[in-house]
Hints:
The structure holds 2 protein chains of 2 kinds. By secondary structure, chain A is α/β, with parallel strands linked by helices. Chain A has 2 domains: 9-229, P-loop containing nucleotide triphosphate hydrolases (Rossmann fold), CATH 3.40.50; 233-300, Alpha-Beta Plaits (2-Layer Sandwich). In chain A, 38% of the residues lie in helices and 27% in strands. In chain A, the strands form 3 sheets. Chain A has a 6-stranded mixed β-sheet with strand order 6-7-8-3-9-10, sandwiched between helices. A 4-stranded antiparallel β-sheet of chain A has the order 2-1-4-5, with helices on one face. In chain A, helix 4 runs antiparallel to helix 5. By secondary structure, chain B is mainly α. Helices cover 75% and strands 4% of the residues of chain B. Chain B has helices at residues 4-18, 20-48, 63-82, 84-93, 95-100, 106-134, 145-176, 180-196, 209-217, 219-231, 247-274, and strands spanning 59-60, 235-238, 241-244. In chain B, strand 2 and strand 3 form a beta hairpin. The two termini of chain B are 23 Å apart. Classes of the chains: A alpha/beta, B mainly alpha. The A-B interface holds A 50, 54, 57-61, 79, 82-83, 87, 89, 91-98, 102, 106-107, 109-112, 154, 331-333 and B 1, 3-4, 6-7, 10-11, 14-15, 18-19, 90, 93-95, 97-104, 178, 276-278.
Amino acid sequence: MEHADPVPPIISVENLEHRYGDFTAVDTISFTVKKGEIFSFLGPNGAGKSTVINILITLLARQKGTAVVAGYDVTAQPQQVRESIGIVFQDITLDRDMTVRETLEFHGRLYNMPVSERRARIDELLKLVQLDTKRDELTKRLSGGMKRRLEIARGLMTRPKILFLDEPTIGLDPQTRMRMWEYIKNVNNEGTTIFLTTHYMDEADQLSDRISIIDHGKIVITGTSGELKNTLGRDLIYLETDNNDAAVRILKDVAAVRDVRIKSGGFVLTVHEDGTKILPSLIDTLRKNGIEISTINLKKPTMDDVFVHYTGKELRDEGAAPARAMHLQPRGR
Amino acid sequence: MAYGFFTIFWRDMIRFVRFKTLLVSSLLQPALWMAFFGIAMSSNFDKLTAGLPVPAGAHVVGYLTFMGAGIIAMTTLFTSLFSGIVILFDKNWGLMREILASPTDRNQIILGIALSGVTKSFIQAVIIMAFGIAIGAAFFAGFTPVQTAIGVAGILAFVALFALGFLFLSAAIAISMESPEGLQGIMTLLTMPIFFASNALYPIDTFPEILKIISIYNPLTLLINGIRYFAIGPDFVAMGKHYAITQGDVLLSFAGLIVFAAIMFAFAYWRFGKAVVT
């Protein structure tokens, strides 16, 4: 047996594959989620994130590969899987005509919680997500952020081992998103493993212990936010000169430079070493060759840089629309 | 998880009581039918049929009483057929996912939906019956309290089976559909022939042969047979026609509804098994 990893996986997926007709939504992916961590799937809409989640929460029948959640096989023991997890779906899934309390009550009943435990848990959770004053309000009268908080409370109702969050902050304003992250972190601190999907860089970056970048149904890379950024080198240096072509040719051969990418008007160097230390020598080298520098910018790689590097595209909301439609289509069959 | 169905039932009942406008409007249509069509037609029919001979032992009932039974059945038909819309909304707005992803067994979900549907139909049938009596329908006329109790129980048993059948049909169609408009279209298309090719408003024996066969096996006709037997009695004359209903006839109608409900259950079970809600 393996001894390398002291924390046992709470989710392990091997060679999972899922097709909608000819379209391969999930293409033989494998990954593990460690007990107690916040694990993110970062990728554009249509990348296959929701398909994976739907298989893990037993709503979608597994086609190929294995998926074990909380120690139970999703196909052989769906009932046990369901009892071990909490889910916050991508779209709001509240009955508009039930009150906040009834929503939680209904959920507790669905999961067969005893009355006394149900009541105590509702009180506790409404305080946690700060909805205790909205107890008897119909859910249709709640703001978007409140609805999301109520859904998170609902997902936590049964004290699940794992909480699945499918795009938890989609469509929320920046302040509400930050607050939501706090709630999610609090929940995680209390011992719940979190599996979340997102197409927001900052969300994956700030919230997660580990991130898998997923694109076209495949996991491109997995690691902590720091690890992923480090794969791009220590720093990114952006330069504009009076002779970019010559500058690129010269800098390519400098030992500390790992990679050069041409941008409009200038170019970006990815460097192995501390950028602030090697920048003076780079400037000297260019000067000696008679090249004048007009602009310098030094920055640490961000999640955006990582994403662009590994998927070859910027992640933008508007570009995601057609892919999303493609994902929804198979529902009809 | 043997009580999972109760959770579904509980939620449905909360919604039912909360939407008083929906309840009132679902009762308004049958009430209007009885108040306008019923009273208007009975003032004509009762005059036309007044001179016809009456067999010994049978009692004559007015048109309002005759069609009142049909209207109780119609209320059940409409309520059950349109109950699937809730499933469609749940499916489209996501609550269905919460339910399906929970450990509650799917059979329990079906049972819960069925139970709440039947309960709603019971409530409506009783209200319409009371309304009918209030405006002059001679339901349970001359019955002893025990006979009346048996009558109400018999009617509810028929209503329950019939409601289940159409509930399952409605649920099966709803789970396969994408839009409420489409469902509404199908339901509207179904209600007209079911209602008019039945004995709700008139006797069916003088129908042309094909229409008559359809009407005899129409579940609505079977339901109305039961309601008339239990609300009016086994032997009566209405619209100049002598109705002599034996216990065998009633049992046959009841058996027909059992078969109907069973087929619809199988249909719904099959459609739900295929349904992927993600």
